[in-house]
Structure formats: structure tokens, C-alpha cells
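Hi V.,

You were right to ask for the full record rather than a summary. Here it is.
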Amino acid sequence: MKHCLNEKRVLLVISGGIAAYKCLDLIRKLREGGATVRCVLTNGGAQFVTPLSLSTLSGEPVYSDLWALKDGQKISHIALAQEADIVVVAPATANLMAKMANGIADDLASTVLLATDRPILIAPAMNFLMWKNAATQANVAVLKKRGMKFVGPESGMMACGSSGEGRMSEVADILGAVTLFFSAALPLNGMRALVTSGPTYEPIDPVRFIGNRSSGKQGYAIAAELARLGAETVLVTGPTALAPPVGVKVVQVETADEMFAACEAVARPDVAVFAAAVADWRPAKMSKEKLKKNMVAAPRIELVENRDILATFSAHGKKRPRLVIGFAAETCDMAVNAKEKFKRKKCDWIVANQVGKDKVFGKDDNEVMLMRLSSSGKINKAMWPRQSKEKVAEKLVGEVAAFFNKKL
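Predicted structure:
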């Protein structure tokens, strides 16, 4: 599942500064988020990074010649200027910003920047004396007045050995500014989301535990989709083999108690999706040493009930999320058992699915039933066809977005 950068087109203009090397990592991170990246490289920029490095990481040709024809009959600067959702200038030298402010177009980069009507994000990089110069500050003021956005510069040690304001912002900050630009128009922008996922492991001794077969795939997909639609998302996850979703804060836990505490620590979310397969019970006492097989008799394990995370958050009073969604994993009589759980837990929606050794757990697809209360108090049920867990996540989060849009 991708993030809000999915299928976005970024034009990256790289000018001549030592910070150009950071753009290699920026390209990689943008593409990880699902964006397409094209690069325009100035002659100065080519002193620090090579066209081969940029094309290898971006998977696209690198553009540097104003007079070269690309893509058949399209002229490079016009095509590049129009075929982007955002233009990022990083590093932006004092020279390039001066050209931008004064409408000079004497190379491909400056011509593209003059020809584009797309949003422009500028990441300046220069010696602190150049940044402080009145001419540079006047140019910055002009560019800001025209609606161009800036990220940085930062204070710190320069390549020349001096220290001061002028360092290009770090990749994470530039990526954050690009993400913020695209997320501003998303339906869940400004909202906070909590998702739980995966199994919990309740220790019997230092090497054994009570657990379950949950892979965490459905919860991870939901967290990724919430983030893609603009929500600030925290994923509290039990042990899984999955990579963290892009744009999501991940909190790793093992036990149900740890998951409960991690959920409680999240500032009141607008929506909470409890997709984790939390163990209902845990051993009353964990052995400090490994239980040996050669004991006279098999050990008896006394179990105690874990706190019910879904029920607790559903009845959280003033701290209650505006929308609480539970999951019901059933091995039989799915609709009947899920309906009973829905009434008992007092959540707003419940997503029911049929699980078992060869069903859902660990698989890439899912077949679910969504239950929710109507305005009259009746439980409405909708059975969704079997589809990938990513598609289930898209459909569920689409319903979440529709719910909040109605509330606005």
C-alpha cells in the first residue's frame, strides 16, 4: 500500500551545491512513497552528482540540455514544466534563486522554472554569508510573494568549514514538506488515527508463549491507507514479519498489556481501528526459567483474562475516539457471533471475517462483513466480496472518510 505520494509526479531540479548528494536519498524516499521522479540537472549540479546515479535511482532519463528533444516531438522544457504535480528545487543555489526571481532563463533548469505553472518547493543551500546577503534575501522575498514555498535552510557546519544558516534541510524535512503539500487536499487531512494489528504473545516462560496465527497484514494495510488519505496514523503492532507502512508511526509490542498501554499513550484519535488478534487470556504467572520436559507431570498453566482493549476504548467517555471500529475473527457462525460481539463491545462498527488455519490468517486476501448501527439503532450488515487485504483496507477507509465528511 502506498502513501499520499502514490502516483504523484515530482520534478526535481538539482543545482550546483555540495548538498546535491542528499538528493540521491530523496529520490529513493519519494519513489518508496509511490511517486514518479524526473530530474533536471544543472551543469553545476553535475559537478557533485552524476546523471547515471540519478537515472539509476529515479528510473527515468536525466534532463540537462535545453536544446535536446525528448519524447518524440515534445520540447524538453515545456514537457517537463507541464508534466509534474510539484517542482522541487534542491539544492537551490543563490544563483538559481536569483534567476528565478528575475525571470532569467539561460539553461534548462531556469527555463523549466519560468515555464511551469505548478507549485514550487525550494530548499536553499549556500554559505551563510551568501544567504544573509541583502540581494539573496530580496530574491527570497520575491519568490515567497509569488507563492513559492521554502523548506530551510538550517543552521550548522558548512562544507567550507564555516558555521551558520545556509545548510540544505535534511531529506526527511524535504520529504515531509512534499508530503504535507499533497496531503493538504486529502479527505482525512488533520485527523488522527490509531490502528492495532498482528497477534500478541503472552509468555509462559522465557522461550514459550501463548499466541495466534495472525500475520498483521490487514491491520498494516488499513494503517497505510489511513495515512495515504492524510490521517496522522499510529500503528500499534504485535510481532509480525512485515515492513513498516510508509508515513505511519509504528509502535512495536508483544503482550496484550503492552498493546493496551501503547494505545492509551496515543493522544485522543479521531478514529481507532482495532484489527489486532489480541489474546483473551495470559498465564497468571510466567516462569523465570524454562519449564523442563522431564518434569514428573505436565505443568498446569493458570490463565487470567486480559483487559479488553476494544471495549475499553468504546466506553472511554470524553477520551473516546469519534469512530471506534472492531474486528471479529470467527471460526463458525460468523454473522451471529459478530453481532453478539458488536452489542457487547459497544463499538460503532465491526468488521467480521471467517478465520482458521487455512483462512485469512497469513493470507493476502480477505472476505469480510461490515456491521454498523443505523440512525434508528438497527444493525446494518454488508457482505463484501473476497478481495485483497489492500482492497479491503481501501474500501473500509473510504467508508471512514465518508463518515467524517458527513459529520463536517
